[in-house]
Amino acid sequence: MITGYLKEGQSRKMKKIINDPGQVVSDMLAGMEAVNPEICYDKENEVIYRRKKTEKVGIVSGGGSGHEPAHAGYVGMGMLDAAVAGNVFASPDPARILNGIEHADSGRGVLLVIKNYSGDIMNFEMAADLAADMDIPVKSVIVRDDVAVKESTYSTGRRGIAGTIFVHKIAGAKAENGGTLEEVAELAQKTADNVRSFGVSLSSCILPGVGTPGFVIGEGQMELGMGIHGEPGIEQTSMKSAAEIAEIMVEKITADLDYSGREAAVIVNGLGGTPFMELYILAGEIDKRIRAKHITPVKYLVGNYMTSLEMAGASMSMLRLDEEMKQYLVSPCNTMAWKEG
Fold this sequence. Notes:
The chain is α/β, with parallel strands linked by helices. The protein is built from 8 helices and 16 strands. The strands form 4 sheets. The chain has a 6-stranded mixed β-sheet with strand order 3-4-6-5-7-8, with helices on both faces. Helix 2 packs across helix 3 and helix 4 runs antiparallel to helix 5. It starts with a strand and ends with a strand.
């Protein structure tokens, strides 16, 4: 059924195409399995994993649901071997993560790619300890790409957002091509060290079962640097043009890392409620500005790669490339959300 919710103070209903609000994660993952013969769904543990296990280093990621296609959409050849889903905007527990590790392990060890949130770090590290007790070698890489957050803002530092997708891709390709656990972890860390992101939000989002926005962005306003769970940004300001937004994004990112004279890959990421028309307008404005800074874009990804339910807005992630990262960036992969080669 289509379930409608009433926003306080309005007669307009907030509608979501769901069944039971308490089962949205399970129903979503079951639907993914139904339409993709390459993956399996472990219903008991809310894990999506590759149907065909190969003898290589396993790659596991995950986190709260509501950011689709992250993370289950990246399970497949050349990227993740398993993705562990928590409830909406909530980290999965260690038992689920351990199950994901077991699904991904083929005897050569497992790399965990973790977004930098305290709940994710705690639960993934606990799962890694449990895996070690089972003689499964595990290494972890924590992604902290959001330049809107100073390293000292939270106890864990910068948040991990859409730049994480580059780590999935490059680490996954290295593993697919026979890299050892140490080699895959080293390249994943290098990728994480060379990616920066910045986002803007135009509206709130509504959690299934709640029915009202968790926060409000005023009429004619936008939030600079808001997190993908609605964490505060750095400033709420009047609505800007695509050119002005691109200017802010590029300046924030390049002020944090020197890309001049380098090749780069760019994700122009929708947060769930932004039309592709607007994303491509923004991408064109970003392209002008990074080329003016003597940065050569060798690959663009434009679309919804890490969302925040139906939030309107966008983020930009830019990866500074070397030849090794460039090689694995364009290596073949076959997942629901990214197909290459």
